[in-house]
Amino acid sequence: MPLFRRVGRPGLLGLAARTAVVAGTATAVSGGMRRHQQQRATEQWEQQQYEAEQQQAAAPAAASIAPGTAGVDLVGELQKLESLHAAGALSDQEFAAAKAKLLG
Predict the structure, then answer these.
(1) CA 52 to CA 59: how far, in whole Å?
(2) What's the rounded Cα separation, in Å, for the pair 91 and 41?
(3) Could you tell me the pTM of the whole model?
(4) Rounded to whole angstroms, how far apart are CA atoms 28 and 24?
(5) Which of 51, 56, 71, 102 is least surrounded by CB atoms within 10 angstroms?
(6) Could you tell me how many helices (H) and strands (E) the chain has, helices first?
(7) Cβ distance 102 to 78 under 8 Å?
(8) CA–CA separation, 28 vs 64, rounded Å?
């Protein structure tokens, strides 16, 4: 051990240690950012694939609607008929006829 302590700039060993710490930190940060960007890109791709699948699934469902009933909310219409039937405004025969007309 030296008799006197060096004052001023760090020695070669101190400079190498500081450089190693800075380089290690930079590597860790850039690796973390790369993983984050890759994860975000993967999530965006999966979201696009999901939306494409939903559009493809919706297209045949829209084509399977009976002609003349396009734009009609079947569930809502059936619920209205049921409430009218329950209230006594429609007889059993009228309810059955209206339901058959809606369902095709």
Answers:
(1) 11
(2) 59
(3) 0.40
(4) 6
(5) 71
(6) 3, 0
(7) yes
(8) 55
- Identify the sign of the CA torsion 45, 46, 47, 52: positive
Q: Record the tokens describing residue 14, joined without a space.
A: 């101190």
Torsion of CA 9, 13, 16, 21, to 10 degrees: -90
CB 77 within 8 A of CB 98: no
Interval 16-36: pLDDT, tens: 888 888 898 988 888 889 999
Burial of 69 (0-12, 13-18, 19+ CB in 10 A): middle
Residue 7 CA neighbour count, 13 Å, CB half: 2
Give the total residue count for the chain. 104
| Greatest alpha-carbon span in the chain | 112
Token pair 């101190």 in the structure block, residue: 14
The residue with greater pLDDT, 64 or 86, is 86
What does the alpha-carbon distance between residue 96 and residue 69 come to, in Å, rounded to a whole number? Answer: 18
Q: Is 14 strand, coil or helix?
A: helix
